[in-house]
Write a structure and sequence with these properties.
The chain is of the alpha/beta class and about 375 residues long. About 55% of the residues lie in helices and about 10% in strands. It has a seven-stranded parallel beta sheet, sandwiched between helices.
Amino acid sequence: MTSLCSKLARPLFRATAMRLQTRSFTHATSWQAAGNTTGAEEKIQPYDMEPQTKALFDNLITGDRRSLAKAITLVESSKEAHKKQAHQLLANVMLHNSQMKDSKRTFRIGLSGPPGTGKSTFIEAFGMYLLDKGMKVSVLAVDPSSTRTGGSILGDKTRMEQLSIQNNAYIRPTPSRGSLGGVARNTNDAIVLCEANGYDICLVETVGVGQSETMVANMVDMFVLLVPPGGGDELQGMKRGIIELSDLIIVNKADGELKNAAKYAQLEYKRGLAFIQPSSPNWMPKTTLVSSREKTGLDKAWKYMTDFKKAMEDSGEFDQKRAQQRKKWMWKEVTESLLHHLHTNTEVQDLIKGIEGQVISGQLASGQAADKVLECFMKNAKF
């Protein structure tokens, strides 16, 4: 059923897009008719919230860390009773964040790299470095999940002992729940909540190197790749797509016997970047050396990050990128929601029991089967 339903994603998306757009237009028109006639200058009023949700929101935007934990738990919940509260909370949080001054916005940084690179060690050292500069740091570490429980099996707080006990640091291991590339569906919402809670920096650590990096790159301002000391073999083994996503490549463990190997690796990556089209016309990706153990090179890595942020803001690309990210995530949610309804539609389930066998035996073409399932779904679906 999964393979057949996957084939339906695109036609299903097209078939329902007009219905969704019509509903959105109607909502927008009624909102404008209610009094929004002065354009962008008028401040949008907060959305209605239940008393309990309103109390959570009020505490969240004052910087209460316990409220942040409660808010993330709420948006991660799969219980139907919590979804309305989560939507109310997120709507008001997005409105609150949109009215922030640029200086108050969270700098969102994605961090990834192959296993054994020392991502957690780097995050702890880098996080402590940022705390010493007077910043508040949040870390969303996306963990592999148990396929049976959907729970987090890596203890990020135990791997960042020093950082996790700091008052101005917040670490949240986020179970992936088996989603594509190991990225939790609600990580994007958690980033938004951290911004509302007043964190200057949000570090998003991903699992390994794979499809999750593309998803994380679509929710952060800057994508940083951590690599171990080495050279040609490591570069050849690294997927080209991951290199293309990277705004900064950090060669970690540049200390002791590995220091020379780290320098050689940096040179190799620098040469490799010369043959790759930068993801932004306003920034040429950089490489640098860091020793998380000896806490050296952190200042230069941070300098590159702040230079990147300034270049993006000065060019206007910073806001444009975030706007495009919000659009992508909206349609991603629409697609996932449609597929969820498809999978849970009783009439479609009954039809598929017989139609999949015909496809497998070659009696019916996949396209014809998809049309039949789609027709059944559109006839019985309720939006």
